[in-house]
Amino acid sequence: MLIRTMIILVVIMLHSNVLAKLPHITVVTENSAIQYMKDGKVLGPTTELIRAMLTNTGFTHDITIYPWARAYAIAQKQPNVLIYSMVRTPEREPLFKWGRELLNADLQVYRLKTRVDVTPKSQSDMRNYTMGVVRSSIVHKTLQDKGFTNLHIVSKIEINLKQLVSGKLDLFVHRSGYFEALCQRNGIDPDLFEAVLPFNYINNGLYFAFSKQTSDDVVRSANAAFDELKKQGLPQKLLPSRSEK
Predict the structure, then answer these.
(1) Does any domain span residue 234?
(2) Parent domain of 89
(3) 135, part of any domain
(4) Statement to judge: residues 189 and 112 lie in one domain
(5) CA angle (62, 230, 244) in 5-degree steps
(6) Mean pLDDT within 180-208
(7) What is the average per-residue pLDDT within 96-115?
(8) Residue spans of alpha helices (H) in the chain
(9) pLDDT tens digits for 139-171?
(10) What is the mean pLDDT of the segment spanning 170-180?
(11) Nearest to 75 by CA among 89, 90, 86
(12) What's the total number of domains in the chain?
């Protein structure tokens, strides 16, 4: 009996040591149609997918919503930080350790249906109208890099949406598959809007990524857990507009 008790104690100690070595993951994101705060908890299909992935790795974690610029800064300065959902671009490639793709790109340019005076026919035509962008977002940086000066910059995506309704903005870029959900969550009728052309400047998908200071083992564990969830069909179930490449 004494030997058995000692063996059990050793097993418990070893298990405790393993758990102690697992890092705590700080997860940051922004408020959007696919990840959002409700009743004091971060929810949404991408959030559920990230939470399931991290649970399967055994990593403890917490998820916090910030304005995008702050979330992006945190993910570049601290170890063991996961950020989602982020467009993967050549400029961002060396700044993070990349995970798997959550959604592929399908960005559209929207206007109010009543704004018949807003008629861009090409990407270049958008220079003639006031465009709403979220500070430090990929849409903001892309348009800025291309010399657009007609940008109305805000900290949160829902501000742009409401200002589009009020007529302060002419155009707004969002992923088509979740634009309706964004409107409904903000108490706005999605039928007020229409897509006028695709946003062809960005074709890359949305990913999760880790800060550069995070160990490669953590990234590999997360990717392996995501791949297993994909085999089980969870990404396809949570994100029905997700099309596989």
Answers:
(1) yes
(2) 22-104+204-238
(3) yes
(4) yes
(5) 115
(6) 94
(7) 94
(8) 2-21, 45-57, 68-77, 138-145, 157-166, 179-185, 216-232, 234-238
(9) 999 999 999 999 999 999 999 999 999 999 999
(10) 91
(11) 86
(12) 2
